[in-house]
Design goal:
With 444 residues, the protein is α+β, with helices and mostly antiparallel strands. The chain folds into two domains: 100 residues, Ubiquitin-like (UB roll), CATH 3.10.20; 322 residues, Glutamine synthetase/guanido kinase, catalytic domain (Creatine Kinase, Chain A, domain 2, 2-Layer Sandwich), CATH 3.30.590.10. The protein is built from 14 helices and 16 strands. The strands form two sheets. Strands 7, 8, 9, 10, 11, 12, 13, 14, 15 and 16 form a ten-stranded mixed β-sheet that branches. Strands 1, 2, 3, 4, 5 and 6 form a six-stranded mixed β-sheet that branches. Helix 4 crosses helix 5, helix 11 runs antiparallel to helix 13 and helix 12 crosses helix 13. Bound molecules: glutamic acid (GLU) and magnesium ion.
Length: 444
């Protein structure tokens, strides 16, 4: 097998006549940051990292310590197929963020994920994830959003055209080495979904970032706008990022047990118990925006209550049904995350929750057969079924009190995230919204 190291990157660069290298990393909120270096700088950058000013980057260093280094990860080298001009090709590499003295920058989300994966590796586990990314195509980013395949615009941009954009996206991803398991139109008008074929979590966090960018770029190229905003339109479904997860040990899926009535191992059950126990604490990560909580309401196939089930789609955790001979596909699907999360931190916290369940031997939580939405509040309370936070403020308050989350994210990133989110909540809380104006101005 090809070793994707520095030497390989230099060879690839020469072979494909790449003249520019985009160095990618993410900020604390999962926004993609990029700066470019020319071919002449590549060798040094691969050896020592490339310097940049971190002071303007969300959640990164303060002015007085603003110089940082981006150390490219050679294994993520990939030619960007859409960009090629008279100067040659353009490639990207994801980077780890270091201090100028070469030590690890602890607030780097990619590092937080790597550290959690290491914890899993020490127990002998490899963590695999497969996300389902939902998004909308709109005519533009203008307010109010206008879909492509609803009402009046049907003639202007026929429904098939949106499927063409999606297909174009899938092909572009394939060219970049990202496998798409399936893609389809989603429930709401103008809503689409791309399901990425499962890989190890670090590769998948990188691929999730790439996928979001490619979806947006292809939309832009076609003069439309794509958004992963969790709930862009009131009254119709929002965008989720259901995340399928499994643990492997030495090539075998440790979630599978042929003798269990649900084909789930003890490990899988403890993992589920970990997700259910900690999901409220990491909601601030998996659902990090004010808008995220507008999606998590009853009636739109998004989860609200903390229950798990084998098939029922209304529950927070679902275990897709077992198909004989497909034991490696045994997995749990967490349905709360949305695609506007920081995938590095989201995958890290999901895994940390599951591992906590395994290590601390959390008790098995029985699946719920009934529809939790049809139960009365009393019934849910009697059965101990809690709910996800109702809004960002509740998520902040729960997260802030969580020693588990502090450990999972590491103190420096934990405190910055809380501070950042409090600022967002304060802006929102004091904002006079169009809802209030419409409701109150004519009457009060
Ligand atoms: N869009 C729904 C959500 O917000 C999910 C629809 C589905 O794939 O079942 O999670
Ligand atoms: Mg879906």
């Amino acid at each position: 097998m090809e070793v994707k190291d520095k030497k390989w990157v230099l060879e690839q660069a020469r072979k494909h006549k790449v003249s520019f290298f985009r160095l990618w990393f993410v900020d604390i909120l999962g926004f993609l940051k990029s700066f470019s270096i020319p071919l002449e700088e590549l060798e040094v950058a691969l050896e020592e990292g490339a310097g940049f000013d971190g002071s303007s980057i969300e959640g990164f260093s303060r002015i007085e310590e603003s110089d940082m280094m981006a150390m490219p990860d050679p294994s993520t080298f990939c030619i960007i197929p859409q960009v090629r001009d008279q100067f040659g090709g353009v490639a990207r590499m994801f980077c780890d963020i270091l201090h100028t003295d070469g030590t690890q920058y602890e607030e780097d989300p990619r590092y937080v994920l790597k550290r959690t994966l290491k914890r899993a590796a020490e127990l002998g586990y490899t963590f695999y994830v497969g996300p389902e990314l939902e998004y909308f195509y709109f005519k533009s980013s203008q307010i109010p959003p206008q879909g492509l395949d609803d009402g009046g615009y049907f003639d202007l941009v026929p429904q098939d055209l949106a499927s063409d954009f999606r297909r174009e996206t899938v092909f572009a991803l394939k060219k970049m080495g990202i496998e798409v398991e399936c893609s389809h139109h989603e429930v709401a008008p103008s809503q689409h979904e791309i399901d990425l074929r499962y890989t190890d979590a670090l590769s998948m966090a990188d691929s999730t970032m790439t996928c979001r960018l490619v979806v947006k770029e292809i939309a832009l190229k076609n003069n439309i706008y794509a958004t992963f905003m969790p709930k862009p339109v009131y009254g119709i479904c929002g965008n989720g990022m259901h995340t399928h997860q499994s643990l492997f040990k030495g090539g075998a899926n440790v979630f599978f047990d042929p003798d269990d009535e649900h084909h789930l191992s003890e490990i899988a059950k403890r993992y589920i118990a970990g997700l259910l126990r900690h999901v409220r604490e990491f909601a601030l990560v998996s659902n990090q925006w004010v808008n995220s909580y507008k999606r998590l309401v009853p009636g739109f196939e998004a989860p609200v209550y903390l229950s798990w089930a084998l098939r029922n789609r209304s529950d927070l955790v679902r275990v897709p049904s077992y198909k004989p001979g497909k034991e490696e596909a045994t997995r749990v699907e967490l349905r709360s995350p949305d695609p506007a999360c920081n995938p590095y931190l989201a995958y890290a916290t999901m895994l940390a929750a599951g591992l906590e369940g395994i290590e601390k031997e959390y008790d098995f939580v029985p699946p719920v057969k009934e529809n939790v939405y049809e139960m009365s509040d009393e019934e849910r309370q009697r059965r101990g079924i809690k709910s996800l936070p109702e809004n960002l403020w509740e998520a902040i308050k729960i997260a802030e009190k969580s020693e588990w989350l502090k450990k999972a994210l590491g103190k420096p990133l934990f405190y910055k995230l809380i501070e950042n989110k409090k600022m967002e909540w304060e802006r929102y809380r004091s904002h006079v919204t169009s809802y209030e104006l419409e409701e109150y101005l004519p009457r009060l």
